[in-house]
Design brief:
Length: 492
């Protein structure tokens, strides 16, 4: 579409969200400062530690699935602590004057919420080595009333039934184990940096509505991985991204690229033009990022699978979830897939360790094992290389990252849940404007190009070299410090 004369006069900027930088000072750079850190390392170190590492990954995913499925009302397992259920976190700044808050970056939930001052049952300490801060709305914030537009819109067009004059717009999120977060919505300034052209950064802000957590119910009080809240990149109109998009600050498109080898990464909002990605439609009206899986092949040979594998409804189908570490398959799919993967090694001794299949292997797994390919509607494929799906634990010990029916529920066992295991080392683009998701294999330590559709300007967004920053500031388990760059164009 040709830009209108007015539009073409608009300045094109990089918008950097919320600026984190808790650790070492950010390198002076025109591109990104929204840093996302990963809670778990991808690979275990020495044997013993490696076993504990696998167990930790498994526990993490169990908790997350309790929460993922909470939205679709299935019987659930998992501990359910909200901030234990994601992999990445960042620091955002809210208020005037601004204060920093550490939040989970989560594509599996919708709203931004932070623990509020005097919160009942909220964590006060975190094993992640960060200082927790409770948000005080009495500063520059204002409470959203239940009869206000935000509340009405997010309640399906009518005020909540309990709404009486002056009462706040409340939220309640129930997790897998029945524990919950309740609170109310407030509106306050989100602070971010705006970069126009190369190397020019200016502080800016937007008014957004988010949740103020007043009470954590159930077993949510203590956690090794406690954070101040969650930043949801789900699809709903109440998300931060939707609000910034509605205000004309950003397009409703975001992308991530997570490098598990070098630890680089990019998390960007904007229209990615390089690399190009092929896309598949999102299944409409789903809570999560559901896609239509069409087939699975191993080393080029298509697996014969029950047709129900490819159904799509709330309790079946395929979910793309970057907050899940591994990948989970229905029983029948898992067994057929593993048989094909180990077809060449009929006599290999395979041990079951905490639901993982583990085995001894010397030599290159990429030479010894087949590529697994998931095919989706629209001819989009997802190739998973042996070095991605086989975790090395100790010298010659490998474990398979695919797990059997990890959703722990009767119905959930029929779902395919694809997490970081298959999403890493790829640029993954969530184009919510066109309701598609796509990806391509990519070097996530390199750079991508993002285009301002209004002016046609194209900017390079670099991944950051993060290894020195975390190494001396952080406990070793916080391996990947990922850099997030938020791109946008300004309307005014
Ligand atoms: C928001 O940004 C505007 C324009 O830069 C500035 O004048 C204003 O003081 C900022 N407000 C806050 C609360 O930071
Ligand atoms: C999705 O939901 C909208 C609004 O409820 C409805 O109009 C539309 O038909 C639904 N689409 C599908 C494919 O179910
Ligand atoms: C990925 O990109 C980085 C930065 O450009 C480069 O140093 C590295 O060698 C690349 N890795 C591969 C495997 O090409
Ligand atoms: C990136 O980090 C590595 C490891 O600390 C270091 O050797 C390298 O020089 C760094 N590269 C740049 C461009 O800073």
């Amino acid at each position: 579409m040709a830009p209108s004369p007015r539009a073409s006069s608009l300045s094109c900027v990089l918008l950097i969200l919320a600026l984190s930088v808790a650790l070492a000072p950010a390198p002076a750079s025109a591109t990104g400062v929204f840093r996302v850190r990963r809670k778990f390392p991808r690979h275990g170190g020495v044997l013993g530690e490696a076993e504990e590492h696998l167990a930790a990954l498994r526990r993490h995913d169990g908790r997350r699935h309790g929460r993922l499925l909470g939205a679709v009302d299935l019987p659930l397992g998992g501990v359910g602590l909200p901030t234990e259920t994601g992999l990445y976190f960042t620091r955002i700044e809210i208020g005037a004057p601004p204060k920093g808050y550490y939040v989970q970056v989560d594509t599996g939930s919708d709203i931004l919420w932070v623990n509020c001052i005097r919160c009942d049952g909220c964590p006060t300490r975190s094993g992640l080595g960060i200082e927790l801060t409770q948000y005080d709305p009495a500063g520059s914030g204002s409470t959203v009333g239940c009869d206000q537009e935000f509340c009405v819109t997010n309640n399906g067009g009518v005020p909540p039934s309990t709404c009486s004059s002056e009462s706040p717009c409340q939220f309640r999120i129930t997790y897998g184990d029945g524990s919950s977060t309740t609170g109310f919505f407030v509106t306050d300034f989100l602070q971010y940096d705006q970069v126009s052209g190369n190397g020019q950064i200016a502080p800016s802000n937007a008014s957004i509505t988010f949740g103020c957590g007043a009470q954590l119910g159930g077993d949510l009080g203590s956690s090794n991985e406690a954070l101040d809240g969650i930043l949801g990149f789900g699809q709903s109109d109440s998300s931060m991204l939707s609000q910034l998009a509605a205000a004309g600050k950003v397009p409703k498109i975001f992308a991530h690229c997570l490098d598990t080898v070098n630890g680089g990464g990019i998390f960007a909002i904007g229209n990615v033009v390089q690399p190009k990605v092929q896309t598949t439609p999102l299944v409409p009206n789903m809570t999560h990022y559901n896609v239509n899986l069409k087939g699975i092949s191993v080393g080029g040979a298509t697996l014969q699978l029950p047709t129900s594998t490819f159904n799509t409804d709330e309790s079946k189908g395929t979910i793309i979830d970057s907050g899940t570490t591994l990948a989970y398959l229905p029983d029948s799919v898992y067994k057929t897939l593993m048989a094909a993967v180990f077809n060449k090694y009929q006599d290999m001794a395979i041990h079951n360790y905490q639901d993982f299949l583990c085995f001894q292997f010397s030599g290159s797994v990429d030479d010894g094992f087949p590529v697994i390919t998931f095919s989706f509607e629209g001819d989009l494929v997802l190739n998973v290389n042996p070095h991605d799906y086989l975790f090395q634990n100790g010298n010659d010990l490998y474990c398979v990252g695919f797990l059997n029916g990890g959703l722990q529920t009767k119905d959930g066992k029929d779902m395919v849940l694809l997490g970081d295991l298959v999403l890493s080392n790829k640029l993954v683009v969530y184009d919510l404007e066109n309701q598609v998701i796509g990806w391509t294999d990519y070097n996530c330590s390199s750079s991508i190009k993002i285009k301002d559709d209004k002016t046609g300007s194209v900017y390079t967004v670099d991944a950051h070299n993060i290894s020195t920053a975390w190494r001396f500031q952080w406990h070793e388990s916080l391996i990947l410090l990922l850099v997030t760059t938020i791109w946008s164009y300004l309307m005014f």
